[in-house]
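Note to self: keep these together.
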Amino acid sequence: MSRNVIDKMLTWAMRGVTYFIILVIGYIIFDIILLGISVISWEFLTGSPRRSGAEGGILPAIVGTFSLVMGTIIVALPLGMASAVYLNEYARQGRLTRTIRLAIVTLAGVPSIVFGLFGLGLFVLFFGFGASIIAGSLTLACMILPIIIVSSEEALKAVPQSLREGSLALGATRWETIYKNVLPYSVSGMMTGSILGIGRAAGETAPILLTVAAFFLPKLPNSVFDQVMALPYHLYILATQHPEADKILPMQYGTALVLITLVLGINLLAIILRIRVRRKYRW
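Structure:
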């Protein structure tokens, strides 16, 4: 069999796998929309749950999820990007730095339940935050921090070394070089990794199960030390633990539709910001 035939077969195989994955994802989204759109209403989006979530709305879960995502972004984004800048621009490239990078990559693959147990032991019990927004946000931030660091460092490496050398040759300091010649051209790539991390944080159940999420709490939080409902955990309870789980399928699908919409909305805003930055800075 000739090399061209093998190449064409592999190309069509990869194309077929890609189309199959898109088809499966499209079917799942279509099914959720079809079965969940019937319960979407103003009352459902702005009301409080009743009968342990079998009736009423999901506003506390929406606000709780949004609060957790915002808290995670505030903590993880600057720490992750700053760590990437240090590892790529300041740290001496040696055995220690390689070990740190290996540890970061390893942490990116740790199961989320492990981060949940870590957050429970450190933030909930040791620091005494209790089951609260701050404990949940810090736990989620620890979970997505490796993803942001790895992707941000790759984006920094993609910037040509000549931009740094030219700036330093003209008398700029290292920080001025990073701030004016490196970050503007790498921030779009750094945002890509952040989008992946934020999307993962918004849809996780295990970490918030142990650090912040409440089963039934039909009120809005007053501070970062309050416990809240969250859409992933609320959906998990409705689908698996609720005594009327087989009778409230529309509520389950409606909650899933809102969760997907929220995640896609956050990702869309980040993508738009990334595109605008990429158009402004080209090299």
